[in-house]
Here is the input.
Amino acid sequence: MNVISFRRIREFFERHRDAESALAAWYKTAKRASWQNLAELKQTYASADVVGRYTVFNVGGNKYRLIARIVYRSQTVFVVAVITHEEYDLGRWKE
Here is the structure.
């Protein structure tokens, strides 16, 4: 998959250093993947959920959420946001 963009991931783990290894692992896995649909993605990330037009990944032992828009046809993952679990629960990311 083509992951756009690592910048959002990096900016998040610069503020939350304990998230760096988990986010780097997610990025490495996503870059190597060639998911064709949600069922294939769930074979790798069983806890991933679709919320509206976004796919939400639990990262770092459920401490963080990576929110992405996935276009399977073009093999592209657009990283929309990386937030804490608490920020996710507030729901502002949907706006």
